[in-house]
Design goal:
Keywords: Membrane, Transmembrane, Transmembrane helix. The chain has about 180 residues and is α+β, with helices and mostly antiparallel strands. The chain has four helices and eight strands; from the N terminus they run αβββββααβββα. A six-stranded antiparallel beta sheet has the order 1-4-5-8-7-6. Strands 2-3 form a two-stranded antiparallel sheet.
Length: about 180
């Protein structure tokens, strides 16, 4: 075989591998969330437990490959003043990017609204999976967005530092 043929085979193999990797990362692992799972919850300041809120037009995607790939969009008729009195608010959150084809979730626009104060972030659920919290941001006009974020326990557990006593017990992954 000549060097040109071997080089061409390597080039074509690399191109096919690159396209497959791109497809799997952007499209392949995501699945739409079923309507049965279309409940949005926020953690109450009174009970410290997630409680459902009224939502419309719920749309979400998730992937089994990572606990932080969840993204959702919805609308609600609840006012921000009622939400801030009833549910636990958060400080300094930044939405994670969503795949470009999930049109309703624009992380830059959501971050701009959070910075401007026209949207407020709330805790949706603590430890939805070990070390991962559900964050819910709601705008003045009732548009809502959900994403998952590593909490302190998750950041410690995944970077290898000592987790500590404040964190819940990590599930035994060997039995899965």
């Amino acid at each position: 075989m000549s060097g040109k043929l071997i080089g061409l085979i390597i080039l074509i193999g690399s191109l096919i591998g690159g396209i497959a990797l791109y497809y799997l990362q952007v499209y392949g692992f995501y699945d739409p969330v079923s309507a049965d799972e279309a409940e949005v919850r926020l953690v109450s300041v009174v009970s410290d437990m997630p409680e459902p809120i009224s939502v419309n037009s719920f749309e979400a995607i998730d992937a089994d490959s990572s606990p932080i790939r969840y993204r959702a969009c919805f609308t609600t008729d609840m006012s921000l003043s009622l939400l801030t009195e009833t549910f636990i608010g958060l400080d300094d959150v930044t939405p994670r990017n969503a795949p470009h084809w999930f049109d309703c979730f624009d992380a830059e626009a959501i971050a701009a609204e959070l910075d401007a104060g026209t949207a407020l972030p709330f805790l949706g659920q603590k430890n939805v999976e070990f070390g991962v919290d559900r964050i819910v941001a709601i705008t003045e006009d009732g548009r809502g967005y959900i994403w998952h974020e590593l909490n302190d326990c998750g950041e410690k557990a995944y970077d290898g530092t000592i987790v500590g006593e404040k964190c819940p017990r990590r599930p035994n992954l060997e039995n899965e």
